[in-house]
Amino acid sequence: MTNKVNIIGYPRVGKNREYKWVIEKYWRGDSTIEDVLEVSDNLIKNNWEMQSKNGAETVLVGDFSFYDQVLDTVTHLGIPQKRFGYTSHENLETYFKASRGGSVNAKDEPPLDMTKWFDTNYHYLVPEIDWSLDFEPNIFRYKYESDLAKSKNISCRPKIIGPATLLTLSKEKGIDDKKINKIVNAYLKLFSMLEEIGFKEVLLDEGCVGVGKHMVNNDVFSSLKLLIQKSNLKIHLLGYFGKYEGFLDEILDSNIETIHLDLCYEGFSQEEILNIASKKDVVLGLINGRTIWKSNLDEKISNLINLGIDNFSISSSCSMLHVPYSLENEDGLDINLKNILSFAEEKLDELRILNSSISNNNDLSEISDYEGKRLVSDKALVGRVVEDVRRRISDLSDDDFIRSEDREIRLEKQSKALNIPLLPTTTIGSFPQTLNTRNLRKQFKSGEISIDEYNAGLKEIITETVEIQENLGIDVLVHGEAERNDMVEYFGELLEGFAFSKFGWVQSYGSRCVKPPIIFGDVHRTKSMTVDWSVFAQSLTNKNMKGMLTGPVTILQWSFYRDDISKKEVAYQIGLALRDEVIDLEKNNIKIIQIDEPAIREGLPLNSKYKDEYLDWAVNSFKLASSGVETTTQIHSHMCYSEFDEILDAINALDVDVLSIEASRSGMELVNPTLKEKYRGAIGPGVYDIHSPLVLQKVDAENRVGELIKSLDLNKVWINPDCGLKTRGWPEVKESLTNMVEATKKAKEKL
């Protein structure tokens, strides 16, 4: 086993997002499944070749996904989903219905619920296991990819999410021995089928077990123990984002083949690694799979030498799904910044260099060359430290984090001053980014049109968007964010301390990709970012116009943030920059200001012992941004696809006046007595699921609005969609919002 490079996960949308484009064409009916397979096959083969070139002796089958790896797992295991039955890789129709929603037995079904994968910005589909039906495992996709690997003379092994992680991530709450036996038997049947086509080992992804007792309970962990005990395949255990806390001893006493150690998230001490390595072969996750900064290879090789163990492999700390493909074509980055960055291909090279050094009797020559270039560029990077920013942070006082009056008093005064009706309707911020909008931005970036022509085009789009909202009868309007390419990237482009790649795309879910900014230096604002557009939009209507900002925690979490200062300090820097923007909006008569924080829950540490520390600075960074305004200025925030119950106290502590949250996709589960009891501000649980192409039907709108009125404080209820409408089309948006507004009117008539 010594001196092997292990690949445990890799990006899967393509260096140029090839898969995104072909699958979206397929969904539109503009391409065939054969086109999809051709692109995905080439993508998979190119990934394998790149990995093999950098020392990987074995590649993975089952790592690529047509939409989501959790849905893939239930598909491999033949576990029917309650509303969709069996999904299939042989016939992708039901697979995509579960992913995106669709007609099932003449009824429109919304897609499976979606939530964040651990504390990353990847979204997975939450399984709905139908225990009443038999499980029917199949190896169609594994055989397909293994045949593909054989055609290229590449050695491969299968990867699958393990039972403890699958059960933890599912909606299933009541796990008993009968259910555990049923799901383990499905795995065993699948493993037997894999044996029949020649596999002798499997990489079992048990990320939740890696986190440990903070995510997995003992009952669920027993499913993994049982599978290990009964499996004929050699099991390589993949855990990450933790140290197997609460389960490590039992794992080491089992008959697993190898255990993966994430040395980057929390890290293992030398003593801990030596203890584990004395009992099992280890895979050392040395290269951080979540960050884009070059590794300190001097430090890595020194630690390896000091360990003094002979039997180990090396890998990334977790799947490289969370980083972009390659720096190869990033010719627009400052050379000193580029020299300290590492995307997936560069991380493969880091693994190769480390492996080569180990294999050549700890020859450090290649590492020395690598480190020299990294250190020189790091020191030469201009803009990392701005003394005025550091001074402003150090001068902060308690008063900078507090509104002048209590929330109950503020809400009453705001309602009168802003003339806010009962059950006010609004939207979350963005409206459809049409082809016209995207072409306008493209023309401006390419120099085809001037700044004046670009701004004139945006004003036309904003004018139309405001008119549509007024015609729909929406109470509190937004300008639609036509000028914004992305809710984080837009602000990063206008703030100092940020840099941007051209091709640094990362999968968020399905075909949805984001291109996170790179925070490399001290963040500060040199000019207003949203004021002109908000003021223009307000001039078009007598109704209240919301100013729209992205919050400090979300900008931080959805960027690749610097690793030379604390996350808290970066968040406070962003908070101060946003505070200046909020005050400028208020000065320009924008009296409702929304500061979106959809990422505040996802940043919650997986290990509960770090929770309070994180929430303290996360909440304070938001309050720093929002607390500089008058009582009658109303602060909104938005959060989506999160387990809110876990952080309700912290959400209360944000002290926002109005909070909008996801609710419809999860079946209005969040609208419960706990929410009414614990959350003290006004609230808008989303009644329209915008992550699905399905139109919000009249009956659903009426039922959901009715549920809000029944369950929450009538005087504190707002009516809105789940999230922004950027990715949707105008016809479905107009129809859905019409039904939302009409349902609200009907509800008010009955009061």
Short description:
With 751 residues, the protein is of the alpha/beta class.
Itemize the secondary structure elements and their pairings.
Layout lengths: L3 E3 L11 H11 L4 H21 L5 E3 L7 H8 L15 H9 L1 E3 L2 E3 L4 E3 L6 E3 L14 H12 L4 E6 L1 H7 L7 H20 L4 E5 L1 H5 L6 H13 L3 E5 L9 H5 L5 E5 L7 H8 L3 E7 L9 H11 L4 E5 L18 H4 L5 H16 L5 H16 L6 H8 L12 H11 L17 H11 L5 H22 L16 H6 E5 L6 E4 L2 E3 L3 E8 L5 H8 L7 E5 L1 H6 L9 H21 L4 E5 L14 H16 L7 E6 L8 H6 L4 E4 L11 H6 L3 E4 L12 H14 L18 H21 L1
Parallel strand pairs: 1-12, 2-7, 7-8, 8-9, 9-10, 10-11, 11-12, 17-18, 18-19, 19-20, 20-21
Antiparallel strand pairs: 3-4, 5-6, 13-16, 14-15
Helix pairs in contact: 1-2, 6-9, 7-9, 18-19, 23-24, 27-28
Give a written overview of the molecule.
This protein has two domains: 4-326 and 333-380, TIM Barrel (Alpha-Beta Barrel); 413-433 and 474-482 and 530-750, TIM Barrel, CATH 3.20.20. It contains 28 helices and 21 strands. Strands 1-12-11-10-9-8-7-2 form an eight-stranded parallel sheet. The protein has a five-stranded parallel sheet with strand order 17-18-19-20-21. A two-stranded antiparallel sheet has the order 3-4. The longest helix is centred in the middle third of the chain and has 22 residues, at 451-472. The chain starts with a strand and ends with a helix.
Number of helices: 28
- Rg to the nearest angstrom? 26 Å
Q: Whole-Å distance between the termini? A: 72 Å
CATH arch. level architecture of the largest domain: Alpha-Beta Barrel
Arithmetic mean pLDDT: 93
Specify the CATH class of the largest domain: Alpha Beta
- Strand content is 5-15%
Strand segment count: 21
Structural class: alpha/beta
State the low-pLDDT regions, or none.
Answer: none
State the helicity in percent bands.
Answer: 40-55%
**Major sheet: arrangement of strands:** 1-12-11-10-9-8-7-2
Characterize the biggest β-sheet: 8 strands, parallel
Shape: globular
Q: What is the fold-level CATH name, i.e. the topology of the largest domain? A: TIM Barrel
Number of domains: 2
